[in-house]
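Q: Can I see a sequence and its folded structure?
A: Here is a first one.
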Amino acid sequence: PSYISIDRKTNEITDIPASRVRIPERIGKTEITTQERDMLRAGLPVRDKLIERNDGRKFVTTLQVNVEQRGVEFVPGTGKSPRTAQTQETKGDTSKSQAQGGENAAQTKKEQRRNTWTNEDGSIRPISKWSGVSFTDQQKADYVAGKAVKLENVTDKQGFHATMYIKF
């Protein structure tokens, strides 16, 4: 058996025999159980694993096998502090989050505001301007469709006019 992956940078297909992948028993101070190691060997992700680093910092992440590194990796974009993970779990139970006080309520509000690029159903939220340049109706439709939108005469950080291409 082998692990097969698509390289994130080059889009090339790479593979490695399963026997050449190192799955550690411990990451930082966190023990990886036999069941979790078996899941990783089977090519499955281990979701919402609480990892404690050697310096004592804790975070929740998803683990999976990485062909390029020949080992286990943290899935990009899934790292959360334990406090953030707890507020996400209690989001559905509003009476519970209200009883926990203002700090958790503020954290929950921050979590809800974080993703403003998509609608609740996961579709791309239309935007009407970028860097002070307004979109035409056609550009708005193209952006929502996932196409690249060309914006001309956008002022960059140095104050020069530039052409920008924006794609969701």
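Q: Show me another, different protein.
A: A second, unrelated one:
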Amino acid sequence: MKLNKLAVGISVASAMILGISQVQAFDNVKWKWNLDVDTDIDQYIDIKVENAEELAVIEVDQTFDGSLKAVSIVKDIDNDGLGLKELGNVVSNATAVANNASLTTDVMTNIDVNQDWDGSGSILASSYVKGVDNMTVDSVATAVANNLSVALSPNDDGSSILLANIVQDGVGDVSAYSTVKDVNINVKASNGFEGPHVNSVATAVGNNVSVNMGSVSN
């Protein structure tokens, strides 16, 4: 009996001490968070192709070092006194592209693309139009370091697979200028004329990727 009473006394005392420590813990709370997260994902894709004609494997490796410039100049175009009695059109395009690739496919495609431009100078496109009478003007300047266009258009049920690894690296200055000056129009446009009389567009792009997937009807 003495042993049982002693055991009960120890149990009660232990419970009381634990209860006191729990109450004291909520009176004084300190939190410290140290979190390190490492994520490692391994993905394995096993694709079986019974017909080799339905698979395209493409590798593109393009490197351009140096400067690139395209200039288009149109000056002093006069449409007076020619008896046309309608507007003519002047088109000025300047396009400078270091690396460019365009791919169109209708089968499952694996592509590995590396485009690198390390410019010691710059890529420049300049379109300059001045002194135009009685003609509409379209002036476009486009400068691009790296450009890739991919179009996958399956022929059968509209489903296919495109696996792509694309790396584009460009270091340098890319600039485009479109300038239109002194355009005079004294001739009425025809009834079917649509759009502006003067269109001036300048586009400068470092790296550009365009991917289009879907059937031709989509």
